[in-house]
Amino acid sequence: MSETVDVRSGVPPLVLVSGPEELLAERAVDQVVSDLRVAAPELEVVSIEPFGYEPGDLGVQASPSLFGEDKAIVVRGLHEAGDALQQDLLAYLDDPAESVTLIVLHGSGNRGKKVLDTLKRSKARVIDAPAIRSDRDKADFVTNELRRARRKITPDAVHALVEAVGKDLRELASACTQLVDDTTGVIDHEVVDRYHGGKVEATGFRVADAAVSGEAGEALRLLRHAVAVGVDPVPIVAVLAGQLRQLAKVGGAGRGRSGDVARELGMAPWQVDKARRALRGWSGPALGRAIQAVAAADEEVKGGGRDPVYAVEHAVLTIVREHQSG
């Protein structure tokens, strides 16, 4: 049985958006609605949430409208839906309404599995919204965002952007849009640094890069500047810890192609290459002692010590010393 679509819009009457990444799921819904409106500019869009759902509401919403306009019914959070909504969805799928496109969002888990299976058996179009958590996934996301906008970005600029604003996918997407709108030509590291170099995460990475490379003066200069402009020591210590853990993971992964190691560790290939370069100045025992020093600093900056700034400086100097001993 092949997928049935509206020949005017190219959209089938059933659409399943599957995956936990909310930004990608919202984009998928927006795109489906936009495609439907090509053929039905007066399309009515109805949103149904799982919480507070009243039995029978789906059937009411799917009934023909007074003026006969096409409808898109967006059912959100199937993975959180109670029995009433699931039963109403199954009843609807047994007898779908004409001129209605049903779009169902399911984040993750087994709840709603019977509805999921029925949607798939009914040849619903499935759009994936996979989780984007690892730095490698975020780097791919940035590259694809710029490719969609027909702009080029250098690998080191991707790296810098992920480090600067990669904690939140929405912020990362917004940063990509800003760079596209406000700049011209190829987006390189200098462009990213100009727009996002002052972020807390970027500051922490600069401190960490200098420290793990054994550059005591540069690491302390960057750290003291960050503190002077009001950056909290806590995220800086978190970045130091993350950088050292990456070195340990890559060092323990052995030889092999960067891409293969990256897939195994959930990292981006450029992160593996960067870690391998940094590891040339380290021994295993020295790396272990540096990690312990940062763990102690983490406890102090979170309330266990009297002087958080001194704790970070001490950790940075310990990292530099261990690098030199390695």
Plain-language structure description:
The chain has 15 helices and five strands. The chain is elongated and about 75 Å long. α3 (83-94) links the parallel β3 and β4. α6 runs parallel beside α8. It has 326 residues and is an alpha/beta fold. The protein has helices at residues 22-39, 57-62, 83-94, 113-121, 135-148, 155-165, 169-182, 189-196, 200-212, 216-228, 233-252, 258-265, 269-279, 284-304, 308-325; strands at 14-18, 44-48, 71-75, 100-106, 125-128.
Summarize the structure.
With 326 residues, the protein is α/β, with parallel strands linked by helices. The chain has helices at residues 22-39, 57-62, 83-94, 113-121, 135-148, 155-165, 169-182, 189-196, 200-212, 216-228, 233-252, 258-265, 269-279, 284-304, 308-325; strands at 14-18, 44-48, 71-75, 100-106, 125-128.
| Biggest sheet statistics | 5 strands, parallel
Shape: elongated
Stretches where pLDDT is under 50 for at least 5 consecutive residues are none
Structural class: alpha/beta
Task: Kindly report the average pLDDT value.
Answer: 87
Q: Tell me the number of strands.
A: 5
Determine the fraction of residues in helical runs and give it as a percent range.
Answer: 55-70%
Percentage of residues in DSSP E strands: 5-15%
Widest beta sheet: strand line-up: 2-3-4-1-5
Termini separation (Å)?
64 Å
> Total helix count?
15
Helix and strand string, N-terminal first? EHEHEHEHEHHHHHHHHHHH
> Rg from C-alpha positions?
25 Å
